[in-house]
Every structure is written in C-alpha cells, then in structure tokens.
Amino acid sequence: MTIVQEHIADSFISLLKTHSYSAITIQMICDNTPASRNAFYYYFRNKEKLVEWICFRDYMKYCFPYFQIKVDNIRTKSMFSCILKNKVFYTALSSVDGGHLLRDCLIKVYSSGLSEEKVNEYARPEQSSQPKVSFEFFSRYLSAGAAAIIMSWIESGMAISVDDLVRDIALIFSKSPDEIITNYLF
C-alpha cells in the first residue's frame, strides 16, 4: 500500500459523502488528490478495483491483525467495528447495483484471509485422521456468510450494536440450527 493509493482512496471516500457512486468520476477523484489520472490507472484499473482495494485495505489493517487473538470474539468485533468506522463508504457502496459490487468485494477479501497458508499460520488446525472438508468449499461458505451478514447489517442501517451482532454470530457458529431455533430466537 502506497501513500498515493491511500490518497486516492481517501478522496473517493470523501466524495461518497456528497456524490453517488455513479456520479463520481476518475477525474473527480484525482482532482481531490495530488495524484494524476495516470497515477490512478497505474494502481487501479477502474473504480471497482478501487472499491476492492479499499475493502482489502480495511480488512488487512483493521481485521486481519486480530486473527491471532482468540479472546472474546475480537476477530468478528474488529470486522464490524471497521465497517462502522467507515460507515460512509460501506453504506454508499451497499446500494450500488443492488449491493453486488460490495458483496463480491467482501467475498473476495474474506476469502483471501482464509487462504490455506494463512489458516495454517494462524489457526493451527489439528492434524488427525478425521475426514477433511474441502478448503475451497469452507472458504467460500465462510466468506459468503460473512458478506451476507455484513450486507444485511448495513441494509438495516447498522441498527444492531456491534456487541450484540458479535454475540449473535458467536451463537450461530457455536450452536446447531435446531438449538438456535428452540432456544435463542425471539
């Protein structure tokens, strides 16, 4: 990540406060930074790649460092706290093309954090003779699930507190669907 990329991202996010995604042009982004159009295109092919880069930056900066910490659901809390901190960006992007751009970026970003190498580095999975789940399937399942929860939370106006959301997610991942239906809904 370079300072130029950061400036371009900051300019774009700032413009989202007063303009819709579709109204923002590459020239508008560059006019608010010391970066030229050539610099923009050096780092990003288009606005969609900029959005993806911002999601990835946020994930690597605010979420991924907490993967080694296994206390009080800090990984999940850091993810939602990051999105809340950058509410303007995520809320604005959730309405672009029915939310597909943001959802697809989130899935890609969270899948990158679930590479086999990173899971082995941070999770230290047990090696045993138990049947193995396909890593690709597992990664897609978790990433799509995280993206769906994030999108739903954003669409609800982030009405649920981060602490309540994290508690609910911890229950979802620790209890069976039958237990949740019987004991935790309503």
In short:
It contains 11 helices and no strands. It has 186 residues and is mainly α.
Q: What can you see in these coordinates?
A:
With 186 residues, the chain is mostly helical. Helix content is 67%, strand content 0%. Helix 4 packs across helix 5 (74-85), helix 4 (47-63) crosses helix 7 (100-112) and helix 5 (74-85) packs antiparallel against helix 10 (162-174).
Task: Describe the SSE topology.
Layout: H1 3-16, H2 26-31, H3 37-43, H4 47-63, H5 74-85, H6 87-94, H7 100-112, H8 116-122, H9 135-155, H10 162-174, H11 177-183
Helix pairs in contact: 4-5, 4-7, 5-6, 5-10, 7-9
List keywords for this structure.
single chain; mainly alpha; 11 helices; globular
Q: Characterize the main sheet.
A: none
SSE-based structural type:
mainly alpha
Could you report the average pLDDT, rounded to the nearest whole number? 85
Sequence stretches where pLDDT stays below 50 over 5 or more residues: none
* Fraction of residues in helix: 55-70%
Distance between the termini: 45 Å
Total number of helices: 11
Radius of gyration: 18 Å
Seen as an oligomer or otherwise, the chain set is: single chain
The share of residues in extended strands comes to under 5%
Taken from the alpha-carbon principal axes, the silhouette is globular
Which series of helices and strands comes N to C?
HHHHHHHHHHH
